Amino acid sequence: SQQGEEDPQALSIQEGENATMNCSYKTSINNLQWYRQNSGRGLVHLILIRSNEREKHSGRLRVTLDTSKKSSSLLITASRAADTASYFCATAANDYKLSFGAGTTVTVRA
Amino acid sequence: EPEVTQTPSHQVTQMGQEVILRCVPISNHLYFYWYRQILGQKVEFLVSFYNNEISEKSEIFDDQFSVERPDGSNFTLKIRSTKLEDSAMYFCASSEAMTGGGYTFGSGTRLTVV
């Protein structure tokens, strides 16, 4: 299985701090994507990084990808209470279906 | 911003009944998907659909499940003879091309089988 696995499982930070979560996977990928899910709600696509990219930014989000280590990280800078959610990495191989990890639950304290 | 719309948002059904979950993908998207998330577990791929046929399905997607695009806009997931373990959040998604680009997910249908 090429499923991504995130760590930590849960993260609690103070508003304004940065949040970093990691994702590891097992097999070669075409791209890796990060999604956010608020409690009981849908999945919101945050950012996609292709296998030939090493770093990508989108607003307060920074994603890195190390294909040699089969790992990715998601950094949320200057966190806000509204960032409280679960964050999932999902990998796509040549078949392009997504394989999701179990997610990191982030709680941002005001 | 274009959205994938799913209805209903919550469905309660008796065990053994059939349910149809509905989705309206983004209009210019060509690839459609169903995923499910059992409470507290990972999001799991069920099926992908392109050009009016299934392009890939997972082991979960057995004869109990079927998908259809009946009218060029709706994309439905039918679950026959529902079981308690079918209780989950079902997400529809669509993408413009099967190039591994970002998917747009709907907000999900929470199916509760009682």
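Chain A has a mean pLDDT of 91.
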